[in-house]
Amino acid sequence: xxxxxxxxxxxxxxxxxxxxxxxxxxxxxxxxxxxxxxxxxxxxxxxxxxxxxxxxxxxxxxxxxxxxxxxxxxxxxxxxxxxxxxxxxxxxxxxxxxxxxxxxxxxxxxxxxxxxxxxxxxxxxxxxxxxxxxxxxxxxxxxxxxxxxxxxxxxxxxxxxxxxxxxxxxxxxxxxxxxxxxxxxxxxxxxxxxxxxxxxxxxxxxxxxxxxxxxxxxxxxxxxxxxxxxxxxxxxxxxxxxxxxxxxxxxxxxxxxxxxxxxxxxxxxxxxxxxxxxxxxxxxxxxxxxxxxxxxxxxxxxxxxxxxxxxxxxxxxxxxxxxxxxxxxxxxxxxxxxxxxxxxxxxxxxxxxxxxxxxxxxxxxxxxxxxxxxxxxxxxxxxxxxxxxxxxxxxxxxxxxxxxxxxxxxxxxxxxxxxxxxxxxxxxxxxxxxxxxxxxxxxxxxxxxxxxxxxxxxxxxxxxxxxxxxxxxxxx
Length: 476
Known about the structure:
By secondary structure, the protein is of the alpha+beta class. Helix content is 36%, strand content 20%. Among the domains are: 5-123, no CATH class; 233-341 and 376-469, Aminoglycoside 3'-phosphotransferase, Chain: A, domain 2, CATH 3.90.1200.10.
């Protein structure tokens, strides 16, 4: 039985890892826009017809010649009770799906078998070509960074580890991130990376171009293409290698003496983070929040902590240190400097190249409104995020470890050593952590730990001791 494309999408989308509405029934799914994407012809001949006017029932453009594939870009609206979200899809249609594409099948329509075409390397090259040529396909605008050159002959491969987006790696040169869930407006990652690239920052991956369109009356980022770093190593993976080396070392061996000591890299990462913050402060406006606003911020910290205690009562016996830190910040009566920040900073967002630490994913904290992700904040929020990440790297392997008890001391030692090295590097790079800054950093870290307590209680109860430890261990 053939179904409409909307019916097929409503059944298919709930199983996609990037779909944000899992666990809730879909009330309605509608196709908001559908743009044919021609697979042949020079960029200047690209055009788009309104849905249904191109000779097919779903608005796809059929390429000339022997091609039996059609391609369309869709923006869909998904309603779940009172929640409404938009997503973008690249949908292909074929008379029959080859074996290599059956795992991304959406279903059979009267125009053929629909499938998630971002996984089809035979057609995704049109995205790279369109960016290189500043093409316009109806409402879709492809933009190329002046002064860069793109090799359009490369084939794509989908990265498999992402949760909220889908990234295509073209050869070993470019990575094109498609923002699956669309929020109207300029994406912070495009905004920040392009601004830092203009300043020549060595701590970002070079931008090459992007795709945009109008959504709800706002110019909205659909995708962003940057330099791919094939020889770089993920910061989280490097840290875990160090932790495993320490866990496997002889009894009594310290983190400093173990073969995979990570402290020197933590120090370099701190320096790079400070340099990045200085570049962001130079590229974007800065401001100051006065003492009264700081007090309101502290009230937000307290509400988060109280909510965490209500959900995880065992936190109450450890919460005094957090309340004391919040009270100390509120009593300082000192203004706080704010600027653009990363917003979701942790070891999984940094890559070690042969010459430098490179920072990725400037989108901000997932799930937050775009206005909040672009808002000015203390750069110490990023520092606090990285400090929490060091704790997670040191301890999460102990969750189901048969020797967890005997390894607790080593985990704490590794975390403290690398946290201290990162902070020392941040200070050496020009970052401020003294006086009220140190008080603010402690409050930010404990507020984040309160959030983590709730998250782990709901999703990974065996990891709950990780954030709980933040409330009992001495500060740096």
